[in-house]
Each structure stands twice: as structure tokens, then as C-alpha cells.
Amino acid sequence: MPALLIHASLLLTLAAAICAQAPDQRLPIEHDDFGLPQRSASWLPYAAAEGHVCNRIFRQLYLAECIPTAVAAALPREHTDAKQFFAAGWYFKKRKGEERDRRWFGGDGRQLPAEGLPQPAATQLKNWLQQIDGDVTNELLSRPRAAVWFQHDLLRFARRLLDVKQNPELVQPLLACAHRVALPRQVLLSSSVRTTTLEDVATKIPGFDQRRCIEVARNSSRLFDAEYVQLWSTIHLVIPELQREAVIAWLTAGDQRTPLAMHTVALLMQGIVAIDDQGKPCATDLVIEARTQRLSNRDPLAFDNPTTTRDGVDFAMWSLARETVRDTDSSVHNVPFTSFRSIDMESQALFRDYGSRKHTTYAAQCALCHRRSNTPDEAIAGFSALRTSSQPAPAKPGARRRLAEREMLRFLDKLRAK
User: Fold this and answer.
1) Are 90 and 305 in contact (CB under 8 A)?
2) Radius of gyration, CA atoms only, the chain
3) Residues near 140 by Cβ (< 8 Å), separated by ≥ 6?
4) For residue 176, what are the contacts with CB-CB under 8 A and spacing of at least 6?
């Protein structure tokens, strides 16, 4: 076997091993706080050395001890009789957070718990950002995936500071650091940044026939608008037994659409919109998350309905840990989908992206917007991208990525005006 292929194979083996270890960083399934980060865990997303400045910055932003604004009743410790709890409205029930709810939140994933920093921590972060220069920058740029993701983390926190109107003195240092780790556009569009692909993901999703799927264009909600999340997103729809032309006909039938067929599945993929070395947005192939929504049954809402929403809709999520790609380089053309971490829908997180800090389960958070029953969306089984108000239509190739770049530009204009 050629040396290059051996090297790539070893790197992928290492990535898979790191991914397999990831659950040890989080509390186990038997714990009341299943899925939250272990206090004792080491988080080394960008370098093997714990004290590396990029790791320090990451931990400052993505790990936080705090009292949630709200605590959901869906948490196992918040209800006693599950059979009675899982009734209409279970996903809405919550209470105000108290001192006893203080927890350690965050870790290597999508959820950013920080809502600004106290002054000593802000000063420390500013000093660390200044250290991202010279040899540190060159080393990071030699690993394009790590550079893109690190830049994303900086911009994501800058967005949060704009939203919560905190630490205005950090916005420009964050932006300046993001520019220092920017790559040329030709690198951002190359295989050295690519992780997984639609083709790779499609082969791992039961019932997802890529030959029959269509990409759906729709209005972007805030959660999928790159101005706010710095990500592009695509949705791919498969309706069982329908060829692509028939799926398009159903999608564009407006008020004449029949109820969504059983076992319909939608695949959402999200990837990073980076800034290139000219300061322009570039939608990269660095896919970091995939999600599916599936109509599994139309049985009534009940405790024993074996679906995520308890009323017939199932979700699945896969997230790519930064540590998984930490040591890969341009010789590895793809990071396989099998290296993504499968997220248990009953695991917990602090869902700050959806408003205030809310401690809940992935299942309950998804069911809020995508349940089948007790909603006007029952005919489309909570597939919100298919609502007529979203103006769904067949997407032109690459259109969603170009839209995300335009959305990202609005965010950059706001940052640069600060």
C-alpha cells in the first residue's frame, strides 16, 4: 500500500478512536444529567497539549457553569410518572431555574453556553486572542479543517456578544483573530477542508434513496440563517415510492398537497461558512452536523408511542467533534460519516440558540417545533420546511450555499461596523 494511503488510514483510525472515546467526556445514560459534560473531562479540540492557546479559548467559550433560565419538565428528575407526563403539551412544561439547577454545560458540540464574560475572563480572552499569531497561526493554517472550525468558534461568539449586548470590547479582537486564521478561497473550496458528503451520509440513512430525493429551497428561519449561525444548511426530501419528479409535483402542489406519506424522511446537513483571506464569505465543505426527521406512525400521542415526539415523528442527529478532525490533514480527502457522534435524543444540553438558556433534552427541544399532533402542521407531520409559509420549492444546485454567503455578509458588515 502506498505510504500516503497508509498515512490516511492511520489518521482515520485515530479519528474513529477519538470519536469512540467522546462519550466518556459526558455523563452516562444512567445519570440524571445524561449527556452533560463531565467536570473532570479534558477538552482538547485543537491540539493534543491541554494548555494550547486554541484549547484555552475553546474552553472559555464552550464550557460554562451556570444556572439555566428555564428547566424543562422533560428531564427525568423533573417528573415522576412518565406515563402521565407524556401527554399533550409535555414539550412545553418547564419552570424557572434556581441555584439547585446550577450545572456544568457545553463541550465539543454545537451548543455555545457563554453569554458574555466577566471582566477578568474577558481580559484573559483578549490576551489569548493576541497570541493567535506568528507560529501559532502558521501551525493552525497548516491544518485547514482546524483553522476553519476555530475561526467559526470565534465568529460564533462574536455573534452571541452582539445578540446579548455584552463585552463590546471583544468584538473587534475576535474579528481580527478570525481574519488572521483565514485561508485562501481555493483552499476553502478544496478537499483539504471537506468532511463528509451527501453521498456518504445518504448511504447510512435507512430508507433514504438519494436517487429519489430532492433538495428543498425554503425561507430561512433564524436558526438556519447564516447571518445568525454562520452555517449553510440544505434539506433533502425522500417520499417513499415516489420518483424525484413525483416528489417535486407533491412539493409544488400548494394547498392541494395530500398528507405526507408514511416513512417520509428529510435529511438536514449543515456546514461552515468561513471568511477567506480577502474577508469574503465562503461556504465550505466542512459539514459538521446531519439530522433526519422521519414520519414513523400516526398513532395518538402517548407514553408508549415509541417515537421521539411520542406522536409518530422520529429524529436522529449526528455531530462531528472537533477532536475527530484535530489531527487530520490535507492527505485525508474526507472525514467519513461513521466518525460523526450519534446524539442520543434523550441526552441533555443547554439550548441557548433557541432563546434563553434552557436545560432540556434533545427530544423535547425538537418536539416543540416538529411534533405531529396539536399543531396546524399535522398533515405534514411537523416537517416545518414544508409549510406553505416557508414557500418550499425544488432548490437549484448550490443556491442554498450562495444564499448563506449573502446572509453571512450581512453579519460581517454588522461586526465591522462595531
Assistant:
1) no
2) 21
3) 46, 54, 132, 146, 147, 150, 181
4) 129
**Rounded distance between C-alpha atoms, residue 317 and residue 344, angstroms:** 8
Query: Please, what's the b/e burial string for 7-31 (b: 16 or more CB within 10 A of its CB; e: otherwise)?
Result: ebeebbeebeebbeebbebbbeeee
Rounded to a whole number of angstroms, the distance between the first and last alpha carbons of the chain is 54
Please report how many Cα atoms fall inside a 13 Å half-sphere around the Cα of residue 341, on the Cβ side. 27
The answer to whether the pTM exceeds 0.85 is: yes
d(CA 72, CA 94): 4
Task: Give the whole-angstrom CA distance, residue 210 versus residue 207.
Answer: 9
Closest CA to 229 of 167, 273, 188: 273
Cell numbers that stand for 236 in this block = 433533502
Burial class (CB in 10 A: 0-12, 13-18, 19+), 166: middle
Give Cβ neighbours of residue 206 (< 8 Å, ≥ 6 apart): none
Joined together, the cell numbers standing for residue 77 give 428528575
* Backbone CA torsion sign across 297, 248, 337, 347: negative
Helices (H), 63-167: 82-85, 119-131, 134-141, 144-164
DSSP β-bridge partners for residue 294: 265, 314
Q: What is the residue type of 375?
A: T
Give the span between the Cα atoms of 13 and 332, in whole angstroms: 11
Copy the grid coordinates of residue 83.
406515563
Could you read off the pLDDT of 318-376 as tens digits, one per residue? Answer: 999 999 988 776 666 789 999 999 999 999 999 988 788 999 999 999 999 999 998 88
Give the amino acid at 354.
Y
Query: Nearest to residue 371, comparing CAs of 57, 16, 83, 87?
Result: 87
Q: Which of 142, 107, 71 is nearest to 319 (CA)?
A: 107
Beta bridge partners of 95: 71
| Model pLDDT for residues 65-100, shown as the tens digit of each residue | 999 999 999 999 999 888 899 999 999 999 999 999
Q: Measure the CA–CA gap between 92 and 113, rounded to whole angstroms.
A: 21
At 88, list the grid cell.
399533550
pLDDT in tens, 207-227: 899 999 999 999 888 889 999
Q: Nine-digit cell at 97? A: 431555574
Query: For the chain, how many structural domains are there in total?
Result: 1
**Sign (positive or negative) of CA dihedral 292, 297, 300, 306:** negative
Question: What is the domain extent for residue 199?
Answer: 3-416
Q: What angle do CA 314, 272, 248 make, to 5 degrees?
A: 50
In the block, cell 491544518 appears at 143
